[in-house]
Design goal:
Blueprint lengths: L1 H7 L3 H12 L5 H6 L19 E12 L5 E11 L2 H11 L6 H10 L2 H10 L8 H11 L32 E7 L2 E6 L4 E7 L3 E4 L1
Antiparallel strand pairs: 1-2, 3-4, 4-5, 5-6
Helix pairs in contact: 1-4, 2-7, 5-6, 6-7
Amino acid sequence: AVESGIKYGVPPTVVIAQAILESAWGGSTLTRDANALYGVKHSTNWPKSGNPYVSGYVVKRTAEQTPTGGVYYIDARFCSYKSQKDSTMDHGLFLNQSRYLTAKNNYGRTKDAKQYARDIKTAGYATDVKYPEKLISLMDKYNLYRFDGASVPGSEPPKPVPGPKPEPEKSFQPNYVSRVGSMLVIHLEDGSRLQALPVPGGRWVVR
């Protein structure tokens, strides 16, 4: 999801939420049979010529909704993939079609992943009338926002700037102890000294 976000300008937050929702956490028959996480339909409009991700298609029965919330079922062709990574990258490429450019441009300007979820629904990504709300609920519940702006897993992280070297610790091995009034003087092996002062409760404060 992060790699797709970097390459195609889509928010990983939404990419992950869509994968969870569309594939039922990877348990749908479409995901098991075709490595398809997002339910991208295979049609005369998709995949485009030269698409490097789609390997074929499978036919599955799917539920659709009318604008008023009515449910009906159709048999549809869905894109199939050699891997779930190919499915994720194809999803990012799919969201770069002209009808989704408003969503992409708005996100590029505002970095508002929630609005992106609403914008792709407006552009026709899904027929589910509560699609944005379902995505945003997942984004909030699992704090998926933490993946926006992340680096690609496996890439070399920035090298830390070296700070000042810590001073070597003193040896606290006592050489001998002397008393000055009520205070104890602890003489250490390195020649330094510590003072131990008595406090109520039979304890000592060392400084």
